[in-house]
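Let us begin with a simple case.
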Amino acid sequence: MRVYLAGPEVFLPGALEVAAAKKRICAAHGLEGVFPLDAPPQVPPAECPYWMRIYLGNEAHIRSCGALIANLTPFRGPSADVGTVFELGFMRALGRPVMGYSNAAADFLDRTRGFLGAAARRRADGGWEDAEAMGLEDFGLADNLMIDGGIEAAGGAFERHEATGDRWRDLTAFESCVRRLAALRAG
């Protein structure tokens, strides 16, 4: 089974080394990892702007895969990368298995409160809000309920692991997702 490897690692220096490590883990479990920077199965039209060719290439990758594993480690804030979340939702809408992982083990509420600092405050009802009186999600989940919910509704798993080193290169939780996906495929 081809598995789309969604995540913000594409922005890393050495992104292809991370891709190669993920692909090796997939192969060891009988899966074929497909990284966003791989050549797409359908070449987007040359007249498209560069950013649109990237989008179309990634969409073609997703459509060509039987499942998706998303790196949902917080990216530039307390939540996952929005592009990665879009890709996860796209695959979920196709009705295919999705798995997710985060190398930050804390609940979404705790990360959001930490990000907001003093701007996060208790409401009279005991919940939390930001400086604009917008409520903060408090479900004990890894990220926004639509992310956790989409993964669970697809029969997937959202693995949380507190990385002790480089959170973008720690593949402990990723490998757990690969094992679960391989078992799901075999079962």
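The second case is a distinct protein. As before, the sequence precedes its structure tokens.
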Amino acid sequence: MAKSVQTMTCQQAVTTLLPCNPFLTGQAPNPTVPCCIVVTKVNAEATTTQARQDLCECLKKAAPTFGVKPEKAKVYDNL
């Protein structure tokens, strides 16, 4: 999981997004402000198409480990 995503590694991206876990696992009905802030931060790190693709693959692989519900993660597709 150490593949680089622009200036952020996959592991760093996953760790950064931990504030979103309650929403992504269905424990919270909506993303929190801290979650939105970290999504913006991770999104800003992936500035090229390749970086975004790498980030997407990284998060797809990590999601099951955290119990992420795919329908919740789709909310972030338009960011």
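The mean pLDDT is 85. Residues 25 and 67 are 6 Å apart (CA to CA).
Keep these points in mind for the review questions at the end of the chapter.
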